Each structure stands twice: as structure tokens, then as C-alpha cells.
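Hi everyone,

Forwarding the result from last night's run.
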Amino acid sequence: MTDKIKTTATLFNLKNQNIRFIIMYYSGSGDDGSIEEIAGYTSETILKHLKKPSLEEISLEDLIDSNPLWGDTVSEEIDSECDKILGDIAYEHLDTVEDWYNNDGGEGTIIIDLQTNQHHIDNNVRYTTSQKFTHKGSFIE
């Protein structure tokens, strides 16, 4: 199977398992980075979390504006093969955004809406700044 076929099949499989959103967290620094967590959520779970009255009102923007669901909402089990393919999808897209793993690194989230096939990446890049000050005088006076 080609990568595109694997990706399509994986997303279709997850959608058939009633998973609506995939949320991934990534982090990196010092020339290395990784996908730290991949979680799948049903529409019903998201509905409860967002306190929306109906499934039709849930959108990708709702998850962007809310704090992603780490730890406070039960996610669906994603098998290791799907997990690997989702990780590959994430790395492919992260290669097109700002640097998140070199030097001071960065972190962020990727949210995929399986209903619309849209994604959103919140990429936070860390950097250290410095200011130069010079002082002249004599230590012998």
C-alpha cells in the first residue's frame, strides 16, 4: 500500500470506530523531538467536554478554542499500527511549519477532524534572547 492509501485507510478505520477527533501532542528541543501523545475522541465525548447541546454544533474551532482534553476526558483506544501511521502523518505536516525541535525547541498540538478531514496545528516555538550591556571605567581609581 502507498503512504496515501495507508493514511486514507487509517483515517477511514478510525472514523468507522466512531472517533471524530484525533488530538496529538508533540514536543522537542536540542535537535530532537517526538509525538508525545495521540488520542482519539468520539463526538459524544467532545460534546460532554464542550457542553454543546448537539453534535451538529461541534467544529474543529471548538477544540482549538478550548484547552485540549489531556487528562480530563477519556479517549478511545488506538491500536499501535494506527498510532504509528498517525505519528507519520504528524511528522510529515510538522516538517512544513516552524522549527519545533532544534535549539530551544517547542511544543504544540495537532487536531484532526475526521468528519471534515481538516486539521489545525498550534505550534509554539521557544527561544532564548539575550541583551548586551557594556560598561567602561577603571578598577584602579
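Strands lie at 19-29, 32-42, 106-113, 118-125.

Cheers,
N.
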